[in-house]
Each structure stands twice: as structure tokens, then as C-alpha cells.
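Entry 0007
Protein: Long-chain fatty acid--CoA ligase
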Amino acid sequence: MSDLLRPWHASYGPGVPAVVDLPDEPVTSSLARAAAAWPQRVAVDFLGATTTYAGLADEVARGAQALVDLGVGSGDRVAIALPNCAAHVVAFHAALRIGAVVVEHNPTYTARELAHQLADSGAVVAIVWEKAVEAVLQVQAETAVRTVVAVDLSADLPRRSRLALRLPVPAARRTREALRGPVPAGTPSWHRLVARTAPLDDAYPLPDAADLALIQYTGGTTGTPKGAMITHANLVANAVQGQAWTGAEEGTETIYGVLPFFHAFGLTLCLTYASRIGATLVVFPKFDPEQVLAAQRRRPGTFLPAVPPMLDRLAAAAETSGTDLTSFRYAISGAMPLPAATAQRWERLTGGYVVEGYGLTETSPVALGSPLSPARRPGALGLPFPSTDIRIVDPEDTTREVDEGELLIHGPQVFAGYWHRREETAEQLLEGGWLRTGDIVRMDDDGMVVLVDRIKEMIVTGGFKVYPSQVEDQLRAMPGVLDVAVIGVPAGDLGEHVVAAVTLSPGASVDLASVRAWLAPRVAKYAVPRDLVVLDELPRSLIGKVLRRVVREDYLAR
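Output (C-alpha cells):
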């Protein structure tokens, strides 16, 4: 990025630089610094069980040596299929410390879903939640996995909670069943390996900043599942950019880890950013508002990375219980548009800011954000991060810049390409390292970028282009409509018909005629839906994003 100022720099929050200085170091260097600077500060709090930074550094060193003893070397892939837990934090940093490549997996995936990712990455060791061990073992022969290591989630609980699990009462049995699963005899235990292994020698070589750190599987911008290659430099850059954006003071923050660590959003903001600033990470195995509020009463948080539905549910639960949320100075919302009403409610209850962040797995993942200042704008993608440049181009001719078109991103957080997929890498990474996002945007005069829609989900009907989000925005304002997904379905010579799938407020009744009447004065005639589907709920990703693709598949399968 050149030193020339861009239109968006003037809209940055106080003290945010246009360019950040990036250290030439691997991810784990920040953990070593934190352990040296704040050895007794709590690094991880898992449902009340705490680990200091000194303790975490020791466990990581032991975990690193345990992986070496299992034959893992620099460049080898280590699969992690775990819910959020202390063991996840340790395993992640341990693998990176020895130059191995972490491959994150959703621990609730089926055996077939895991088979593709494990085989594609060539992982040699898999660190797996007990409940997922059986699925991995079913497909192990189809992969390069030599060793499956089991993780007992209950081992990370406070001692009193572990003892309570042994009680012969229904509540203890249900909790035990939720945390644990059957493990074949002879399967090594991660906690036992870490406890019994001497720490890695400090002289063991560190990986280089340019080395691959992470393979994160994503649908990407083309819809084909593939592994995004993220380097140590990418992850360090995004953590440094995040620190500059938030103005976080090192050694003081308490981050709530409610987002799954196996997702790029949760991984960066909870694993790499947290250690970068010496934060206390409060870890939750799943998102449970009551569990989060209980932690808030015990160890108040200052920063919450989340998605809008999480903010809504937490706010509602806090209002009901009277829990004080004013310790949260800032929150970053991502994965979907942040409704203004959600932002206003959260800021009223906390007195802090909630801003939107935008990015892709391919940008490690944050590339743009709304400023943490009165200039924040719910619903907008935001401003490009420090040391990040953007272009808005014609999707059919990426050399031609336009006022409304596809967003291209360039910066130190942009990934290295797709694992073993040269052609798809070439399609997404243009000359000079510019990433095609597949998102249609425009930029306002203040440099704020606003999403119009995704190229792949744009509907073409009768030769006219329909952006689903524009129709959805109007339908969400219709009385009785709770949420909506607008899709295109084949319609012969016309190309596609517009179809709306809606969920309704309790007791509400909406039909196609009323939807068409509502939209007639609000959108172009060709954008008015030809069909309506009323659903009990819309399909969503694990972090709450509505899956239009699934809505379309279900509609066509009727």
C-alpha cells in the first residue's frame, strides 16, 4: 500500500493510523511475550477454571513436545476438531509453535464431511473431541491421519464441576453425556499427553512469518469447499490491525469467546488477537445466554466479538435478569448486516460501541470495519482497515473501476491461496495480490463501503438484475415478517423468478398477494416475488448467517 491517503482515512476513529507496522514474527511470539509480561494474569477462563499466561505457556510447550513425540514436524498438518475449550487454545498454539499447520474442523461434522477435509489437507495427527472420535476413526483409512488423540471436554472444567459429574443424579448424567463420548481403548488422551510430557526445548526453531500457519476450509467466493492457506504473517497482521482499530490497552482486556474457534471470525479475534494484547479469554463451549451472563457476573467482559442474533439474545436475557453489561466497552459484529435496532439496544445497555466488521476467511478474516466513534454506521461494511487498500470494479472487467461493482481487497491479511487448487487461486487472486470478494458494493463520500449484494446470489430475471438483499430489506419492514431470504429459481426464457421465503412473528399471517402489494411501491416491478414460502425458521450457518443456497435447494426439492 502506498503512503498516499485514501478517502476513508479521514473517517477513522481517534488515533487509528493509516498504516500499521508489522513485526516479522510467527503467531506464537505474542504468547511468549504475554507470558513474560503478565505471567500471573488469567489467560483462559473456561466456565470458571482458570489458566494464567505462565501456565498456558507451559501447557503449550508440553503440547508442542507431545506433538513432536507423535512425529509431527514443520509443515505437517494437525487437524483440530474441538468445541471452544481450554484444550483448543493449547492445541492451536502448540501446533503452531513447532511449525506445524493447524487445520480447523467443525467437531459436529459427519464422518463424510470430515473425510473430505482430512484427506484433502493430508493431516497426520487429529486432536478430536471425544464425541467426534468415532466419526474420524470411521474414515481414518481414507486419510493420512496416523494418530487420533481424544479430548475429554470435562477435563477442562473446574475441579468442583468435574466432581459433580460423578454424582448419581439425572442432571449430572445429562451434563456428562453432553461433554463426553465413547473412546476405543488405546486411543491417546490429549490431557494425559500434555501432563506427562516435558516442555519443548526453548531452542526448538520457530517458524518463519511467511510459513503456512492455518488451512481453513471455506465455501469461499465460488461455493466450492476448499482450504484457504493463511500464513503466520496474515494472522499477525490481522491481530495488529485489530489492535490499532480498537485501541485496546495491552494486559487489560477481557474477551468473551462465544464464537466458534473453528470459524475464521472466532479464531482470529479469540485466539490470535487475544494473545497479541495479553487479554483474558473467557471461553464458552457453545453460545448460551444464561451461561454468558453468569460469567459476566463473575468476570465482567470488555470486548465481545459476536453476530447480531447473539447480541439480541444476550440483550434480551440481560434485560430480563437485570444483569449489568456496562463493562463491555466495545463489540464487533460480523457475518451478516447489523440491524440499527440491535445496535441501539446493545449500546443502550452497555454504554459502549458496537460496530460492524467485514471480511472473508481469505482475509484472515477482517478487512473493513466501522469506526469505534460516533461516526459508526450500523448496516454498512465499514472502512478499510489500516494498511488495507480496496478497489471497486466491473465484475466483467476487473481493470475498470466503477461506482458500484465488485469489491477487491489488497493488504497484509490477504491469504496465500487455496490448498492444492492453483486454478481457483488464480481466479480469486488477481495480479498484484488483489482478492476478488464476489461482493457488489458502493462507497459513500466519507469512504464508508456499503454492501449491495453477492455476485453469486444476484438474480437475473427477464434480463434485469435483482439484488436479494435490497428486496429483503424492504420485506423485513413489513408488519408480521420476522425474517426473510430472497432467492432466484429457474424460469425458462425469463432466466429466474424471484421467490421470498419468510418467517413470521407469532400470530401473524402473510400471503403472496399482501407481500406483492407491500413491495409494489418499494422495489422495481421485476423484483417483486412470484412465489412465497412461509417457513418455521430459515436455515443458518453455525454463526447465524442465513443460507440462501440451502433455501433455494429446499425450494427446488419440494
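Curator remark: The chain has a mean pLDDT of 93. The longest helix spans residues 53-69.
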